[in-house]
Specification:
There is one protein chain. By secondary structure, the chain is an alpha/beta fold. The protein is built from 11 helices and 12 strands. It is elongated, with a radius of gyration of 27 Å. The chain starts with 5 loop residues before the first helix and ends in a 6-residue tail after the last strand.
């Protein structure tokens, strides 16, 4: 019978709950007229309740296979759970949708304008110019995660990558590091691009710390190989390495350990993103923890506000700070 309670039906129609139970289960003992009244009341009530439920879609844009790694699924789970829980507390139905490329994203956006969807949260960290351009197709309230705010009316929630990188560089400098290299992932996504820009910006503004960016790969094997080659061709190790994300951190720490390089005695390490529980490292990495769960919660609250006030013309870019976690990987 769904969400309509037998007691509610019985009270509304002046019959017993036993009669309602017999009617909905197709059992004998109820005359045809009463059975029809009961079933019509249930159907009518459920339709009214369904019409009041607001459907929200969470769209995850997929461009590369990284989205399906166990580590990424763990990260997205915390973000999704917080967002879904917040939306459900508002009585909203949440539907998950994956868009594998531009054309599938276009189809979802166009369908959502007419299928009863009232709002959307879009995970857009792998967007290219092509995907940004078709967001104008969406005519319902939406919030985007981990991407540029290309139009003033958009609502976007992103990590404060610039602040984390600059704070990390100041931290290393205060501990005597004057040569810091940055190990970047091969993936070209928004968060990574912002971290790279912030690193180069710090070097330009500071004038005392020198360094450069090196692309180390996109999986543990390629990162480990690159780090071994990097060390073999250096006469002197840099004072520190800034690690772009958890994957670069795991690969770099593991490779240095195999090479017998001591952390932090021989080199300091600092990174962004916590290390998944499935990975065991020989040190506690000093890093900036990206609060994925909080990002999910904030995105849901932004969408709720937009849905309540659809005439809002100005959008908002919400910068989400990361928490500094001091480990033992820096001197």
């Amino acid at each position: 019978m769904g969400r309509v309670k037998s007691k509610e039906v019985a009270e509304a129609l002046g019959v017993s709950t036993a009669t309602v139970s017999l009617a909905i289960n197709g059992k004998p003992g109820v005359n045809g007229e009463t059975r029809q009244k009961i079933m019509e009341y249930i159907s009518r009530t459920q339709e009214q309740e369904d019409s009041q439920i607001q459907k929200v879609k969470k769209i995850i844009f997929v461009y590369s296979e990284r989205m399906f790694s166990p580590e990424m699924q763990s990260i997205f789970k915390s973000s999704q759970l917080e967002a879904v829980a917040r939306l459900q507390r508002e009585g909203m139905e949440v539907v998950m949708a994956y868009a594998y490329g531009k054309e599938e994203l276009r189809e979802i956006l166009e369908d959502s304008n007419s299928d009863g969807t009232k709002g959307m949260i879009v995970y857009a960290d792998e967007f290219t110019d092509a995907e940004y351009e078709i967001m104008d197709l969406c005519k319902i309230p939406f919030v985007m995660l981990d991407c540029e705010m290309r139009q003033s009316e958009w609502n976007v929630a992103v990590f404060h990558n610039r602040m984390a990188v600059r704070e990390g560089m100041r931290y290393l400098k205060a501990r005597g590091c004057r040569e810091v290299v940055y190990f970047k992932n091969s993936e070209q996504i928004y968060n990574f691009e912002m971290r790279r820009r912030a690193f180069l910006e710090f070097l330009k503004d500071d004038g005392e710390v020198r360094g450069e960016i090196f692309e180390v790969g996109k999986d543990l094997k390629s990162i480990s190989t690159y780090v071994a080659d990097f060390v073999a061709h250096r006469e002197k190790l840099p004072d520190a390495i800034f690690l772009e994300n958890y994957l670069v951190s795991i690969g770099t720490v593991g490779a240095l350990e195999k090479l017998g390089i001591r952390i932090p005695e021989d080199i300091s390490l600092i990174g962004i993103d916590g290390i998944p529980g499935t990975a065991i490292l020989p040190c506690r990495l000093t890093h900036f923890e990206a609060p994925h769960g909080r990002k999910g919660l904030i995105s849901a609250e932004m969408l709720i506000e937009k849905m309540r006030n659809p005439q809002m013309e100005e959008g908002e870019c919400r910068l989400i700070s990361m928490k500094f976690i001091k480990g033992d990987s820096t001197s």
